[in-house]
Amino acid sequence: MSMQDTQASETVGSVFVDDAKFSVRSLSVRYGEDLAISNVSIDIAKTDVIAMIGASGCGKSTFLRSLNRMNDTIENCKVRGSIKLDNVDIYADKRDAVPLRARVGMVFQKPNPFPKSIYDNVAYGPKIHGLARKTADMDEIVETSLRRTGLWKEVKDRLTQPGTSLSGGQQQRLCIARTIAVSPEVILMDEPCSALDPIATATIEELIAELNSKYTIAIVTHSMQQAARVSNRTAYFHMGNLIEVNETEKVFTNPEHDLTESYITGRLG
Amino acid sequence: MDNLHLDQHISRQFNADLEQLRTGLLEMGGMVEAQLADAIQAIETADGALAEKVLKVEDEVDRREIFLDAEATTILARRQPAASDLRLVLMVIKAIRDLERMGDEASKIARMALLLNDEGEAPRGYVELRHLATKVAKLVNAALDAFARFDVYSAVKVVRDDREIDVEYQSAIRELITYMMEDPRAISRVMNIMWALRALERIGDHARNIAEHIIYLVHGMDVRHISLSEVEKNIEAQK
Q1: In which element (H, E) is residue A251 found?
Q2: Is B2 among the domain residues?
Q3: CA nearest B14: which of B89, B108, B64?
Q4: How many CA atoms lie within 13 A of B50 on its CB side?
Q5: What is the CATH number of the domain that holds A243?
Q6: Residue B116's domain is classified under what CATH number?
Q7: Binding-site residues on chain B for chain A (CB distance < 8 A)
Q8: Is residue A107 part of a domain?
Q9: How many domains does one find in chain B?
Q10: Whole-angstrom Cα distance, residue B38 to residue B220?
Q11: Is residue A28 exposed (0-12), middle (13-18) or buried (19+ Cβ within 10 Å)?
Q12: Which domain holds residue B94?
């Protein structure tokens, strides 16, 4: 990639908001010599379901992973710029990222339940974060989390069975239950439905809408229809640059940038 | 000219589908234009056979409307178009409705031509009719032309020119009412001319609707029910 930090184009649209949960400024991420994202500035509002769209390799997943320092695990990854969560820079010191990841949870593309029981999958996070002292407290956290993901009725009689015994869609909801069990403030979702059938996808999308009343949600998706359905704001990435951020309705009916238009209408850019 | 780049999708079939929608609308527009021209000639020359032909064409215009509606629905269902593609499909769905209504109005004029054939020609009103018909035909042509070129400025001109047509229609009506008061024996026949004038005025309104849809198509802004100066201001702001 031949991009330089400085040549990033100006992002068009409504990039900044008043009630920012995340404030990202001049963020650049490199993997060795490769610049994955270049000079990205954006706010994510408390009430947002924000969708990140763009072609493969555009930097949208890198951006998402920067938000809870998942990139720290990659050896030659360098992050510049600032990301503030509630006005505190999450990269300011090199302290343990675990407390951050309790506040900013993540759901991955492929459902990845632990090889444990359904109960233990949900209880795992609260246990390591010391959120429940008594068994009754833990039972309550597990039940609430499973109820919130709509899974309780389906699994309440087989909580001791392995998480992997569930269907793909149920496994993904289990992973979301596991994420919300530690009471995060933000949920990051990296293509959470790409391994699911349309019915399971619809269930997850419905869940996203419900979860949004409590959590800020940022979702990376390859499905533009999904972005259009679930998000209130959409951010379009192109070759490491953040091209446009706007109300989802505007992006899909009348985008501001020609590159956004080309991408969402399936034209050759 | 194609400033919406309809032919640049990765899917060539999608290019073809949208192009078919575009040419389909223009073809339907051409039919309605011819229908209008024939209707005017039928009433002016008291040509009953021509008036009958106009009424027959109406069925074909209706069939086109249904066909294009189905095409647009298929594109929505199969392609889930977005941005300018979505606006094109929505615009076509609206515009074919306007064209179909124009066809209905042209048929009304043809029916008036048949009535005048039976009752004998009206003593007054033909000059006004010819005058308004020329302007309305031009307006329809300009609206279709603006669509063919996705030309917002021509579309704004259509919106503006339709106002003139409304003014001329009012003044023609006033004149004919005055005449009817002077000569009540002519009321029935002059009324036929007035109905034809009314149909022309409505056709002008539909041409204006199409022009407004074009502005929506190109700039994504809804300009219905706002003043012309505001429309122009918004378009300048989009530049």
Answers
A1: helix A248-253
A2: no
A3: B89
A4: 19
A5: 3.40.50.300
A6: 1.20.58.220
A7: 5, 8-11, 14, 80-87, 219-221
A8: yes
A9: 1
A10: 35
A11: buried
A12: 12-237
List of chain A residues whose C-beta atoms are within 8 Å of the C-beta of residue B9? 265-268
In a domain, B129, yes or no: yes
pLDDT at B235 over 60: yes
Which of A254, A259, A260, A263 is best to mutate for the B interface (most B CBs within 10 A)?
Answer: A254
Contact B83/A266, CB-based, under 8 Å?
Answer: no
Q: What's the CA gap between A78 and A226, in Å, rounded? A: 31
- Domain holding A28, by residue range, is 3-112+185-264
- What residues of chain B lie within 8 A of the CB of A255, using their CB? 83
Residue B2's pLDDT band (cuts 50, 70, 90)? low
B23-38 per-position pLDDT tens digit: 999 999 999 999 999 9
pLDDT above 90 (res A155): yes
Give the chain B residue nearest A267 (alpha carbons): B9
pLDDT, one tens digit per residue, over A2-17 is: 344 444 468 999 999 9
Whole-model pTM: value is: 0.86
Cross-chain CB nearest to A267 (options B9, B86, B221): B9
- CB B83 to CB A264 under 8 A? yes
Q: Which of B14, B80, B83 sits opposite A254 (nearest CB)?
A: B83
Within a domain: A258: yes
Per the domain annotation, does B231 fall within a domain? Answer: yes
- Nearest-neighbour CA in chain B from A199: distance (Å): 18
Q: Report ipTM (2 d.p.).
A: 0.79
The answer to whether residue A121 sits within a structural domain is no
Residue A195: per-residue pLDDT: 85
Closest alpha carbon to A240 in A17, A27, A18, A13 = A27
In a domain, A246, yes or no: yes
pLDDT at B54 over 80: yes
Q: Residues in chain A whose beta carbon is closer than 8 A to a beta carbon of chain B?
A: 224-225, 228, 252-255, 260-262, 264-268
Angle value at C-alpha A78, between A75 and A82, nearest 5 degrees: 135
